[in-house]
Design goal:
By secondary structure, the protein is mainly β. The chain has strands spanning 2-7, 10-13, 18-26, 30-39, 46-51, 57-59, 67-72, 77-82, 91-100, 105-109, 113-118. Helices cover 0% and strands 60% of the residues. A hairpin with a 5-residue loop joins strand 5 (46-51) and strand 6.
């Protein structure tokens, strides 16, 4: 079983920055893709950013140039640096990690961390 622990959410004014972290632990053989999703009130969950094991990245258009996803494979941790935050970035942010465990593949989700951007 794989556990994800997220941290770094909070309240920030528009234009400010936050850094989210998500650490994976448990029965992990290898982690492949890592990503961050978000869900705003009344909206569907959307992919914000993703990163492959080799470092390839992709972002939703609305955060390009403002958010940066990175990972530390030695620590099984993924980060999301969020700059120039806007009120429309307000949402619960979830990390997602896909990989192989000792016996089977896994697709794990974090508990979510709330990001609130005030105008």
């Amino acid at each position: 079983q794989v556990q994800l622990v997220e941290s770094g959410g909070g309240l920030v004014q528009a234009g400010g920055s936050l850094r989210l972290s998500c650490a994976a632990s448990g029965s992990i053989f290898i982690i492949n893709d890592m990503g961050w999703y978000r869900q705003a009130p009344g909206k569907q969950r959307e992919l914000v950013a993703a990163i492959t094991r080799s470092g390839g990245t992709n972002y939703v258009d609305s955060v390009k140039g403002r958010f940066t996803i990175s990972r530390d494979n030695a620590k099984n941790t993924v980060y999301l640096q969020m700059n120039s935050l806007k009120p429309e970035d307000t949402a619960v942010y979830y990390c997602n990690v896909k990989g192989l465990g000792v016996l089977t593949a896994f697709d794990a989700w974090g508990q979510g961390t709330l990001v609130t951007v005030s105008s």
